[in-house]
UniProtKB/TrEMBL annotation:
Domain STAS positions: 165-276
PANTHER family xref list: RSBT ANTAGONIST PROTEIN RSBS-RELATED, RSBT CO-ANTAGONIST PROTEIN RSBRC
PROSITE patterns in UniProt: STAS
Native source organism of the sequence: Peribacillus deserti
UniProt protein name: Polyvinylalcohol dehydrogenase
Length: 281
């Protein structure tokens, strides 16, 4: 079986150009897809290289020694996943492209088996089972890695957005402003509680003016997070100051039983900064 498997492996590699040319020739026009017939020359060069490596990886799955397949599979997953994520390729497009490759590779395998005298039907059936397992491994490893990479990127993007949405802006030594704008939900309020104290410590802030003039309404959870933020800042030795508290927010906070009685408040940011002797920014 090992000699037959080696011969099949070499046969697939010898026919890799045939498989790739058939695969590329079957492409259609798909706007914005790397698999489109009108993809740029750079993309097509990259695809051809990756497609040849895909064929090599699949072919190595027939070998008795699985170490080569495992090595190629790991390299293939890293290369292909990072490429598809970079180009924003949805998984269904990748699976469709891999399905066409699957059909072409099996055509070569089956034709080789039927035209080679010493290959019987039992051997072809064994190859079929090996081929199915190999393709399943490619799909499973790709989807696992794709999920991992995209999840990591989404988290990084969310952290960047959180950082942009929750800036601690130093104005003079020891004094900084935290402008709260737009809608504040529980997630954002929680992120404020988790990130602002660390930012203040990094900027050596002693007084933090939390300006909520851009916030129109709050609920119980958001108000609770705001209150906890002022208490955490106090525990760290900082003095929190609130500015821009609207009548609606003040009334809502009192109704909810959340009173910032230990926190100095100002009607607007200008007044709060004047308290620290800051007349112009």
């Amino acid at each position: 079986m090992s000699d037959k498997a080696q011969a099949l492996y070499e046969h697939i590699l010898l026919n890799s150009d045939f498989i790739s040319n058939k695969w590329f020739g079957a492409r259609e026009f798909k706007k914005g897809s790397i698999y489109s017939m009108d993809a740029s020359e750079e993309v097509q060069r990259s695809l051809r290289k990756q497609h040849k490596y895909t064929i090599e990886t699949i072919a190595s799955g027939f070998l008795i020694n699985s170490s080569l397949f495992q090595q190629k599979l790991e390299e293939w997953v890293d290369i292909v996943v990072n490429s598809r994520v970079e180009y924003g390729t949805p998984i269904y497009e990748f699976l469709g492209a891999l399905s066409r490759t699957r059909e072409l590779v099996w055509f070569v395998v089956e034709e080789y088996g039927l035209k080679t005298d010493h290959i019987d039907k039992q051997t072809i059936l064994q190859w079929s089972a090996v081929f199915q397992r190999t393709m399943d491994r490619l799909i499973n490893e790709f989807t696992r890695k794709y999920h991992s990479v995209t999840s990591s990127r989404i988290q990084s993007q969310q952290e960047l957005l959180d950082d942009i949405d929750n800036p601690v802006i130093p104005v003079v030594d020891g004094v900084a402003v935290l402008p709260i704008v737009k809608f504040v939900d529980e997630h954002r309020a929680r992120m404020l509680l988790e990130t602002v104290p660390e930012k203040c410590a990094g900027e050596k802030v002693k007084y933090l003016v939390i300006d909520v003039s851009g916030v129109h309404n709050i609920d119980t959870l958001v108000a609770t997070h705001f209150y906890r933020l002022t208490e955490v800042l106090r525990l760290l030795g900082l003095t929190p100051v609130l500015s821009g508290v609207s009548p609606d927010i003040a009334i809502t906070s009192v109704k909810l039983g959340i009173v910032f009685e230990r926190t100095r408040t100002y009607s607007n940011l200008k007044q709060a900064l004047l308290h620290f002797g800051i007349r112009k920014l």
